[in-house]
Specification:
single chain, alpha/beta, eight-stranded parallel β-barrel, 8 strands, 37% helix, 18% strand, globular
């Protein structure tokens, strides 16, 4: 992802097919070929059967480039597909059974406060996203929480924290200085032209 972010910064790409102007699968192939830290297949507006069908196409794409594919929201679909990684909102993470947790080597959780971060860690999260750090179109009208909040989140837990929300090439280094393990990006990956 060196075209989008400075070298040395771990980037997790989060999908949103609505932001891609061309072929979604081709865009994901282009992203995977740049070897991001991981790709989160977030398409949470899809009903579970459609999401699972899409994931059947995306998992092999990521696998062919040895990029971890983290499925989102639908843990039962992820288990059926044998996917080792899931990302969940906190309420869904809290509801995971021990049997479900045992199916995953990676469990990411979206968090928005120190209390949420600590709770997610306590129930078995292996990494967290902290959001939203900078102003972003995804959260129009909501004030960003800023780098000081990110630092507080990173200091509150012992697992990796990834900055999310409005992260770009100009502000990513500030996230790393605040203690983040890396950054999560959606628009920068989905809208990037790999021509």
């Amino acid at each position: 992802m060196s075209e989008v972010f400075p070298a040395g910064i771990d980037v997790i790409c989060i999908t949103n097919r609505h932001l891609v102007s061309g072929d979604f699968l081709k865009q994901l192939r282009n992203i995977a070929s740049r070897h991001p830290k991981a790709l989160v297949l977030r398409e949470k507006d899809l009903p579970e059967p459609e999401y699972e069908a899409l994931a059947r196409h995306i998992l092999p794409i990521c696998g062919s480039y040895q990029v971890p594919c983290i499925l989102h929201t639908y843990q039962k679909a992820a288990i059926r597909l044998g996917a080792p990684a899931i990302h969940l909102p906190l309420p869904a993470a809290l509801a995971l059974t021990q049997e479900e947790k045992s199916c995953f080597s990676v469990i990411g959780v979206s968090t928005h406060s120190v209390r949420e971060a600590q709770l997610a860690q306590a129930v078995g999260a292996t990494y967290l996203t902290a959001s939203h750090i900078f102003a972003t179109d995804c959260k129009k009208g909501l004030a960003p929480k800023g780098v000081a909040f990110l630092q507080e989140m990173c200091e509150a837990v012992q697992i990796p924290v990834y900055a999310l929300g409005g992260v770009n090439a100009r502000n990513a280094a500030a996230c790393i200085r605040a203690g983040a393990a890396g950054v999560c990006v959606m628009s920068a990956c989905m809208r990037f032209s790999f021509s």
